[in-house]
Specification:
Blueprint lengths: L3 H19 L6 H22 L16 H31 L6 H26 L6 H16 L5 H17 L6 H24 L2
Helix pairs in contact: 2-3, 2-7, 4-5, 5-6, 5-7, 6-7
Length: about 200
C-alpha cells in the first residue's frame, strides 16, 4: 500500500495536470523583461517628443510638428516589438514544456486580455486626437491593469497582482498629470522587468 508521502506526491501530480489543462502556463519571465526594456526605450523617445524641457510641461519641442503622428508611430512600434518578443519567449517556453502554444486556454486568455486593451486603446486614440496627451499615461496603465486582472484567471496568479499594481499606479498618475510619462515608464518598464525577473526565478524559462 502507498504511504502518506506517496499519496501527497500523487495529489501534487494531479494538481499540476489540472493546472496545465485549465491555465496557460507558457508565459515566460523573459517576455516581461523584454517588454520592460522596450517600454523604457520607448519612454525615452516619447520624452524627447513631448517635453520641451525638464519643466514637465506637455508641449512639443520647438519646431516639432506632427507630434500626434509621431506618438502613434512610436506606440505602434513599441506594441509590435513587445508582442514579437513575447511570442518568441512564450513559444520557446511552450516547446520546452511540451505544451501547445495555441489551445482553448490561449484563446480565452487573449480574448479576456483584448477586451480591456482594445477599449483602452480606442479611448487613448480619441484623447490623442483631442490633444489630451497628459491623460494617455494614466489611462494606458489603468486599462492595461484591467486587462491583466481580467486575463489572470487563465494563467499565473502573479499576472493579476501585476495588474492591480498597474491600476493603482494609473490612478495615482491622474493626480500628477505632468509626470505621467514617468509613471508610464515605471509601470510598463521597471515593473515589467521586476515581474519578469521574479517569474523567471520562480517558474524558469
Amino acid at each position: 500500500m502507498k504511504d502518506k508521502e506517496e499519496y501527497i506526491e500523487d495529489l501534487k501530480e494531479i494538481k499540476e495536470m489540472m493546472n496545465r489543462s485549465s491555465k496557460f502556463i507558457s508565459l515566460s519571465g523573459m517576455s516581461g523583461i523584454a517588454a520592460g526594456v522596450i517600454a523604457l526605450i520607448a519612454a525615452w523617445f516619447a520624452h524627447s517628443m513631448i517635453y520641451a524641457s525638464l519643466s514637465m510641461e506637455y508641449t512639443a519641442q520647438p519646431g516639432s510638428e506632427g507630434i500626434t503622428f509621431k506618438l502613434l508611430v512610436l506606440a505602434c512600434a513599441t506594441i509590435i516589438a513587445a508582442v514579437l518578443a513575447g511570442v518568441f519567449f512564450t513559444k520557446r517556453k511552450a516547446k520546452k514544456l511540451n505544451q501547445p502554444l495555441w489551445d482553448a486556454q490561449t484563446r480565452l486568455l487573449l480574448i479576456n486580455l483584448a477586451i480591456p486593451l482594445v477599449t483602452g486603446g480606442l479611448l487613448c486614440l480619441l484623447l490623442l486626437q483631442q490633444g489630451l496627451i497628459g491623460l494617455l499615461a494614466p489611462f494606458t496603465l489603468i486599462f492595461y491593469g484591467l486587462a491583466l486582472v481580467n486575463a489572470s484567471k487563465y494563467t499565473f496568479k502573479e499576472v493579476g497582482t501585476l495588474g492591480m499594481v498597474e491600476i493603482v499606479l494609473g490612478l495615482v498618475a491622474m493626480l500628477f498629470i505632468g509626470y505621467g510619462l514617468f509613471f508610464w515608464a515605471f509601470g510598463f518598464g521597471i515593473l515589467h522587468i521586476v515581474y519578469g525577473i521574479f517569474m523567471q526565478s520562480k517558474y524558469g524559462s
